[in-house]
Write a structure and sequence with these properties.
Elements (H helix, E strand, L loop, with lengths): L1 H6 L6 E3 L8 H7 L4 E3 L13 E3 L12 H9 L3 E3 L1 H16 L4 E6 L4 H14 L4 E5 L5 H11 L3 H12 L3 H7 L56 E5 L2 H4 L9 E4 L7 H4 L2 H9 L7 E5 L3 H4 L6 E3 L8 E3 L3 E4 L10 E6 L2 E9 L14 E8 L8 H16 L4 H10 L8 E6 L2 E5 L6 H12 L7 E5 L12 H7 E6 L4 H7 L7 E3 L3 H11 L5 E4 L12 H18 L6
Parallel strand pairs: 1-2, 3-4, 5-7, 5-8, 6-7, 8-9, 9-12, 17-21, 18-19, 18-21, 19-20
Antiparallel strand pairs: 10-11, 13-14, 14-15, 16-17
Helix pairs in contact: 5-13, 5-14, 15-16, 18-19
Length: 567
């Protein structure tokens, strides 16, 4: 944000960091030499003559270290904003100044954000459009926009090129349609300027429309601006931190994939967490809704009464909504999953006949369009089928054709550490879902993989820093799909207590390296050993990627000890 403010000409930029040795201090000094970096207590005194306060999404507005300053800023009428606010304002300014009006697709949810965001971007690119991919997935929105603007021709040069293309004379237009030299079936156009004669609008004083009057053609409509580097489509992954308090963000289409307990220490409670997520929809854009998620479905506002014109009665008008889910779609345009002949298909509902007028309340007859078998997806689990449906819904919402996207969907391999197969040892598959750092993610992984396995089961590794979560939602999927559970980390005992009634064998392990061979010993051929801890990693590892590497190394070591190659 400091770089963006400097680019916009801010005279004074002050950056506060809670850390004694901020990791980006050197980059700030290089990129924004005019910025002043400071730390310590914050209060009204630090506002000075500030005109704008920008808050990093990593800091909760209730954080005692920054709350006094934020309160003082609001009391003085200063705007308190974040990166998403700045990005929305930047797009509005670019539209007014240069006619830049891209489509914006936005994705949030407790789980599946990164997979769905990267998949949506890939599908839009397969449809032939350049994409700006940014947000929580990285890089930042403002850095990505600034990089594109730096490469884009200056407005004056672009405008000159555009003006030259737009300001064709009537003679230019007629000349485009003049018959070629030689024999033709039709008569040549007889108009000034076609064959080299000088155009003279007053040659004989005739009025337009009279016989022999000069041909007067209106110039063609102005063409839409063409941008070489600014993308026509933005695909944004947004966290609840980035969305909290945002105003003025209006995407073309947006989705909340799911809502489950996470970041409650930041938001305070589930209601505030869900409310932050719901801000992604703005006031006007298409809402892409997961109909399998009651908390998401509840975000759709009630229809509003709109006055009728010329004596007509008021009518209820609702937001534009497109739905997806893991069952058969019930409305035209919605996406879903159906099973026919034992095979699950990704499908879309289409109206059987758009010309038939229906009576009020009469159900519309649908045709279910089969798109591709769910088994053709390379990303594993039903939850990833849901992510794929969300991506298709978002991309089709801005007019992307299905055919090239379905080809791309078959090739997408997913993101690292998100239900990622890493190999097979003794007929047992190892699956890395180290990014499953909350209960909702692990429930989705267990259900998604478990429902794809008819006669086999999972052995799951759970545990770490649970961040105060309720582990009770794990019980039902564990009881249904899991053969045994290995427990590690700080909250192993809390998880064991939540699973006590499942009847599933559990074993506590001091290290992940010790848990892996035990899991393979419990598993049967055709089963999978799943690392999906439902917890953060920092009690035992540097981060979730480090945890994943330890898991992969332990699986590789087990294969070596058995004289096998990890396949």
């Amino acid at each position: 944000m400091a770089r963006w403010c400097a680019r916009q000409g801010a005279a004074t930029i002050r950056v506060w960091d809670s850390r004694e040795a901020p990791p980006q201090a050197a980059a700030l000094a290089t990129d924004v030499p005019a910025a002043t970096l400071f730390s310590g207590a914050l209060g009204a005194g630090q506002l000075g003559d500030a005109r704008l306060v920008l808050k990093s999404p990593g800091l909760a507005p209730t954080d005692a270290r920054i709350a006094p300053l934020l309160d003082a800023a609001r009391a003085q009428g200063l705007a308190v904003m974040g990166e998403l606010d700045l990005f929305a304002h930047a797009l509005a300014d670019l539209k007014a100044a240069r006619g830049y009006a891209p489509k914006v697709l936005a994705i949030t949810g407790t789980n599946g954000k990164t997979t769905t965001t990267s998949l949506t971007a890939m599908l839009v690119e397969r449809a032939g459009l350049r994409v700006g991919l940014a947000g929580n997935i990285g890089p930042t929105m403002l850095d990505t926009l600034a990089a594109a603007l730096a490469l884009e021709p200056a407005p004056e040069a672009a405008a000159a090129e555009q003006t030259e293309a737009e300001h064709e004379t009537p003679e230019d237009v007629v000349g485009q349609y003049a018959e070629p030299a030689g024999d033709t079936d039709g008569a040549a156009i007889d108009a000034p300027g076609v064959h080299g004669e000088p155009a003279d609008d007053t040659a004989d004083g005739s009025e337009p429309g009279e016989e022999g009057a000069p041909l007067v053609l209106a110039p063609p409509p102005p063409k839409d601006p063409v941008f070489a580097h600014l993308p026509p489509v933005w695909v944004l992954e947004l966290s609840s931190f980035q969305l909290d308090g945002v105003r003025g963000f209006e995407p073309s289409a947006a989705t909340v994939l799911n809502i489950s307990q996470d970041h409650l220490d930041w938001h305070g409670d589930m209601a505030a967490y869900a409310a932050a997520k719901a801000r992604i929809f703005g006031e006007q854009g298409l809402m892409v809704i997961n109909r399998d998620e009651p908390l998401v479905e509840a975000m759709v506002p009630a229809p509003q009464l709109v006055k009728g014109g010329r004596g007509k009665p008021a009518k209820a008008v609702g937001r534009a909504v497109l739905r997806f889910g893991l069952d058969a779609p019930q409305r035209p345009g919605d996406f879903g999953l159906v099973t026919e002949g034992g095979m699950a298909w990704l499908v879309r509902a289409m109206p059987a006949d758009e010309t038939i007028k229906r009576k009020k309340g009469e159900a519309e007859e649908l045709i279910i369009q089969r798109l591709m078998p769910a088994d053709a997806l390379r990303i594993r689990g039903r939850h990833n089928a849901s992510n794929a449906l969300a991506a298709l819904a978002l991309a089709t919402a801005i007019g992307c054709p299905l055919a090239p996207m379905l080809h791309g969907l078959r090739e997408y391999r997913g993101e690292p550490h998100r239900v990622e197969p890493i190999g097979i040892v003794g007929g047992i598959e190892a699956v890395d879902d180290s990014k499953g750092t909350n209960v909702g993610a692990t429930v989705a992984a267990i259900k998604g993989l478990g429902e794809d396995r008819v006669s086999s089961k999972l052995v799951v590794i759970l545990g770490g820093d649970g961040k105060g979560q309720d582990f009770a939602p794990l019980a039902a999927p564990v009881q249904r799909h899991v053969r045994a559970v290995a427990l590690i980390g700080r909250d192993a005992e809390a998880i064991a207590a939540a699973l006590a009634g499942t009847g599933v064998p559990m074993q506590r392990h001091d290290t992940l390296e010790a848990a892996v061979p035990w899991c393979f010993a419990q598993a049967q051929e055709g089963d999978a050993v799943l690392l999906s801890p439902a917890c953060a990693s920092l009690d035992m590892f540097r981060n979730y990627a480090h945890r994943a590497q330890v898991f992969a190394d332990a699986v590789q070591q087990l294969a070596h000890e058995r004289g096998e190659l990890l396949s």
